[in-house]
UniProtKB/TrEMBL annotation:
Organism: Leifsonia virtsii
One Pfam short name: ABC_tran
Keywords: ATP-binding, Cell membrane, Membrane, Nucleotide-binding, Translocase, Transport
Keyword Membrane on entry: yes
Lineage, highest ranks first: Bacteria, Bacillati, Actinomycetota, Actinomycetes, Micrococcales
SUPFAM superfamilies the UniProt entry points to: MOP-like, P-loop containing nucleoside triphosphate hydrolases
Domain ABC transporter as annotated: residue spans: 13-241
The protein's name: Spermidine/putrescine import ATP-binding protein PotA
TM region positions: none
């Protein structure tokens, strides 16, 4: 794909102390956020957490109750929607049915009397690899192709900022996965700033270089997908992005490098650098795929964290891996994901096991345990 006319870069977006109150409901409690130019940013959160409201504020479809919005350093808080360097792609992409694909993409350029609308529309269609279908009408395209036309229509305007509100929501799972990779590669190609709203954690992690996890009108945590996954800072993030095993217990030992936390009578070591709290009662976590199962404590490497003995109460096979549930008295149910290796299953239903993991994978959350 050639960069051609799309080589212009995006602008950064800054939300400064944003609050949005609707009559009787505060949708955004407080938002301070800077999204660097040229990045692919995902706002991730459950339904009703305020994602769409945030996008609508940036697009100028809503006015903030408090705070400022800056695009490329310019304060646009009171700027009209059509004067902002922003385009939005929604889940329902509403192409004009009576126009060809080319006319659909060129429409906005013609209306704004921008030169060479046809050439620019072809270029945008080449970018989404649909130029060969330029003469067709929307009804003659698949859902994924229509979505790509909607994207071409947004990109052709060369907005400094492209807002995507669940744009893949209407597609089936396979097409969705394919479009995620395509969207990412188009973003890399055009270098614009993409702000993508989704409630699908896998989608956010696959595409974005930075993810902000939103909950109840606030950002709980923001960072690269790897950091959010490896080092969640709150219970909400630990459970919303993948699965976590969370245990509560008192800190009993505070070393310069590690903390020792008592979990049901077992000493669990946590690197200090991975602990958001270092004293009192804390929530300790570890991801299920970091755990290994052992038929006896002798096979556990020295220095590893371990809990047990416990009993395997459920085994569910899912192709590449198997999920084991292990009940450890005084601790609770632990979820373990084990890769299915040629050597066969690592534990049997009803069997006695110890759960172990490298202490380096343990984290302590910022929340106070319940
Ligand atoms: P979803 O994933 O379901 O689209 P969302 O995270 O995008 O959810 P928003 O659409 O931003 O959520 O809505 C946030 C909250 O604000 C919701 O509780 C919603 O009911 C409320 N809300 C949104 N618009 C209005 C409005 N015009 N008046 C009153 N409340 C509103």
């Amino acid at each position: 794909m050639a960069k051609g006319a799309f080589a212009e870069s995006g602008a950064d977006l800054q939300l400064d102390g944003i609050k949005k109150r609707f009559p009787g409901f505060t949708a955004i409690e407080h938002l301070d956020l800077t999204i660097p130019a040229g990045s692919f940013f995902a706002l991730l959160g459950p339904s009703g957490c305020g994602k769409t409201t945030t996008l609508r504020l940036v697009a100028g479809l809503e006015e903030p109750t408090e705070g400022r919005i800056l695009i490329g350093g310019q304060d646009v808080t009171r700027t009209k929607t059509y004067q902002r360097p922003v385009n939005t792609v929604f889940q329902s992409y509403a192409l004009f049915p009576h126009m060809t694909i080319l006319e659909n993409v060129a429409f906005g350029l013609r209306r704004r009397k921008i030169g060479d609308p046809v050439g620019k529309a072809h270029e945008a269609l080449r970018l989404v690899e649909l130029d060969h279908l330029a003469a067709r009408r929307p009804a003659q395209l698949s859902g994924g192709q229509q979505q790509r036309v909607a994207l071409a229509r947004a990109i052709v305007n060369r907005p400094a900022l492209l807002l995507l509100d669940e744009p893949l929501g209407a597609l089936d799972l396979k097409l969705r996965r394919q479009m995620q990779l395509e969207l990412k590669s188009i973003q890399t190609e055009v270098g614009l700033t993409f702000v993508h709203v989704t409630h699908d954690q896998e989608e956010a992690m696959t595409m974005a270089d930075t993810v902000a996890v939103m909950n109840k009108g606030r950002i709980e945590q923001m960072g690269s997908p790897e950091v959010l996954y490896e080092l969640p800072s709150t219970v909400f993030v630990a459970n919303f992005l993948g699965q976590s095993n969370l245990f509560a217990g008192p800190v009993q030992e505070t070393g310069s490098e590690t903390l020792g936390v008592d979990v049901g009578g077992n000493r669990i070591q946590v690197p200090r650098s991975r602990a958001q709290r270092t004293s009192g009662y804390v929530t300790v976590g570890v991801r299920p795929e970091k755990l290994t199962l052992h038929a006896s404590p002798e096979t556990i490497p020295s220095g590893a964290n371990s809990l047990g003995p416990g009993r395997v109460t459920d085994v569910s096979f899912s192709g590449v891996s198997t999920q084991y549930l292990v009940d450890v008295p005084g601790v609770g149910t632990i979820v373990v994901f084990a890769q299915n290796l040629a050597s066969g299953p690592v534990a049997q239903l009803g069997g006695e096991v110890w759960v172990a993991w490298d202490a380096a994978h343990t984290f302590v959350l910022a929340d106070e345990p319940p």
